[in-house]
Specification:
Layout (H helix, E strand, L loop, with lengths): L1 H5 L15 H8 L18 E8 L15 H17 L3 E6 L2 H11 L12 H8 L1 E4 L7 H12 L5 E6 L17 E5 L9 H15 L10 H17 L10 E6 L13 H4 L2 E5 H13 L2 H14 L2 H4 L2 H11 L23 H5 L5 E4 L6 E4 L14 H12 L25 H6 L20 H7 L14 H15 L5 H12 L4 H6 L6 H13 L4
Parallel strand pairs: 1-6, 1-7, 2-4, 2-5, 3-4, 5-6
Antiparallel strand pairs: 8-9
Keywords: 4Fe-4S, ATP-binding, DNA damage, DNA repair, DNA-binding, Helicase, Hydrolase, Iron, Iron-sulfur, Isomerase, Metal-binding, Nucleotide-binding, Nucleus
Protein name: CRE-RTEL-1 protein
GO molecular function: 4 iron, 4 sulfur cluster binding; ATP binding; DNA binding; DNA helicase activity; DNA polymerase binding; hydrolase activity, acting on acid anhydrides, in phosphorus-containing anhydrides; metal ion binding
Length: 535
């Protein structure tokens, strides 16, 4: 963001339903935003039921790393999932903190009996309620898994997709309507505590908190760690509501959500949150969908209608189409814009912020490579300088002997040329051409004195170094040039203000100041300097 600001971007608008927690987001951006707006949802009544499940059959649901393998916790999570699956129609998305947690729980559920006198495992009961599909680690297998899930959603019992926060499913793939009637999050997806980036970030924040010379707002490592987890939670929650006619439930299976600050959740979701145990969660979920059964029937019909192409086309073609939807970042479609203004050049961040090396462009006349130099700025003020012109001139002088043409380069000698007047009618009849490089044109046939040539070769960045300026003169110098850049003063006033600063001590620097002016003003500036016999 700082790099964008340095590039001259004047206005940045960030809009999303999942930027919460806002405080952490603005702090990490490193910028002071002029305005921060948090709104309720566009709908007056958000069609979402959010349940924080704090207790299961055997006690509190705490999905900490130390408690993940606890038998009571594993069985309570499975029981809560099954109850919600039985009460929810169509598709369910279940998100875990990590692949390791998901794999461990799935492996345990496949062997653990759901009751002492029952032969069914928890996994078998889940498969009776829904077609259960697990997100693969390999990206190549995701398209086939997505197809299985889509087919399962259209079945009478629906389907459940087990996935991971910050994974391929939680971001980048659009699940709407029947595909995301419920979003369940098991535990809190904290970043890996021993990850090198996490360790370094926490150490940096702790060091910053201990420094007394830092006066701006600080953030503790604990707050940052928690906010990173809730950002992933909010990203997953965003799967449940994709348009104004969508609806669904959100189930957070962890007692720690009950003690979280409201600011951790998006503003549009806060009014829908309630705390309960797993039994009440199942009852309220069933009631929520019973009230919307007519919408579910319409949604199912539309789902079958829009997926009719699956029965018309081959399975291979359908998988290919699903694979395109599984890309995290879809490529822009090629189109033929009717308006030329719609044709916007694209650029990557790497290209935008890469080091600006010397670019070479081919010269067809002598097959030499001429440097195209990046525009530079004066070290004192942001006005155009003559460093680029000097570099190109030096290159042309070095390669002049290799040129195939016998004519002398006009850039090697500064000459006064006569400008032929053009009538206004001729100008109007001429077709407008792209702007060309500006050249110095003086209305006389005489040649610039040699000392003027040398003065013009002085880099403008040396102006303040070549003379010992008082503080008042420095202020006058910078204010004059800034005023000229802002077009609040003309070249004549620049001439009058800079003259006592450089003349008579350093008249050559006074002449070099003309490089900062626009070409037409530069011509008048030098002409007046010659007539005034300043140098």
């Amino acid at each position: 963001m700082r790099m964008l600001k340095m590039r001259g971007v004047r206005n940045v608008l960030l809009a999303s339903g999942t930027l919460s927690p806002i405080q952490a987001f603005t702090y990490n951006m490193g910028l002071n935003f002029g305005a921060i707006l948090e709104n309720e949802h566009a709908l007056k009544q958000v069609p979402v039921l959010t349940s924080i499940v704090t207790r299961g059959k055997h006690g509190g649901l705490t999905g900490s790393f130390q408690n993940r393998k606890n038998v009571n916790y594993v069985s309570d999570v499975a029981e809560a999932l099954i109850r919600v699956m039985e009460a929810t129609p169509q598709g369910i998305l279940v998100f875990f903190s990590s692949y390791s947690q998901m794999d461990e729980l799935v492996a345990t559920w496949k062997t653990m009996k759901s009751a002492a006198n029952s032969t069914d495992t928890f996994w078998a009961r889940m498969e009776k309620s829904k077609r259960v599909v697990v997100e693969p680690r390999a990206k190549e297998e995701l398209a086939a898994v997505r197809l299985k899930y889509t087919q399962g959603v259209s079945e009478p019992h629906g389907a459940a997709l087990l996935a991971v926060c910050r994974g391929k499913v939680s971001e980048g793939i659009d699940f709407c309507d029947a595909e995301s009637r419920a979003v369940i999050i098991v535990g809190i997806p904290y970043p890996p505590i021993h990850d090198e980036r996490v360790v370094l970030k926490k150490k940096y924040l702790d060091d910053l908190m201990g420094r007394k010379d830092v006066t701006h707002e600080k953030q503790s490592s604990t707050d940052w760690y928690q906010m990173e987890a809730f950002r992933a939670v909010n990203q997953a929650i965003g799967r449940v509501l994709r348009h104004k006619n969508d609806f669904g439930t959100v189930v957070l299976l962890d007692t720690r959500y009950a003690t979280a600050k409201p600011e951790m959740f998006p503003k549009w979701l806060r009014s829908t949150i309630s705390r309960m145990d797993s039994d009440n969660c199942a009852l309220k979920t069933a009631r929520f969908f019973k009230e919307r059964c007519h919408l579910i029937e319409v949604s199912s019909f539309l789902k079958i209608l829009f997926n009719f192409e699956y029965f018309q086309n081959s399975k291979v073609d359908y998988i290919k189409k699903q694979a395109k939807q599984c890309k995290s970042f879809s490529q822009a479609k090629k189109s033929f814009p009717s308006n030329p203004r719609d044709d916007i050049t694209e650029i990557t961040l790497e290209d935008m912020f890469s080091p600006a090396n010397m670019m070479l462009e081919k010269k067809e006349s002598n097959k030499l490579m001429s440097p195209s130099v990046k525009p530079s700025l004066s070290s004192v003020f942001s006005l155009p300088t003559n460093e680029d012109e000097l570099k190109i001139k030096k290159w042309e002088q070095e390669n002049d002997s290799q040129s195939t043409t016998s004519s002398v380069s006009d850039s090697n000698k500064r000459k006064f040329k006569t400008e032929i007047p053009v009538s206004s009618s001729q100008v109007s009849n001429q077709r407008s051409e792209p702007p060309k490089k500006k050249k110095l044109i003086l209305l006389t046939r005489e040649t610039l004195p040699e000392k003027y040539q040398k003065a013009l070769d002085i880099p403008t960045s040396e102006l303040t170094k070549g003379v010992s300026m008082s503080y008042e003169n420095q202020k006058q110098f910078v204010a004059t040039l800034k005023g000229y850049k802002a077009t609040s003063i003309e070249w004549e006033e620049v001439f009058q203000r800079l003259r006592p600063i450089f003349v008579p001590e350093k008249p050559e620097l006074f002449i070099s100041c003309s490089n900062i002016l626009r070409s037409e003003d530069k011509m008048k500036y030098l002409r007046k300097a010659l007539s005034s016999k300043i140098y």
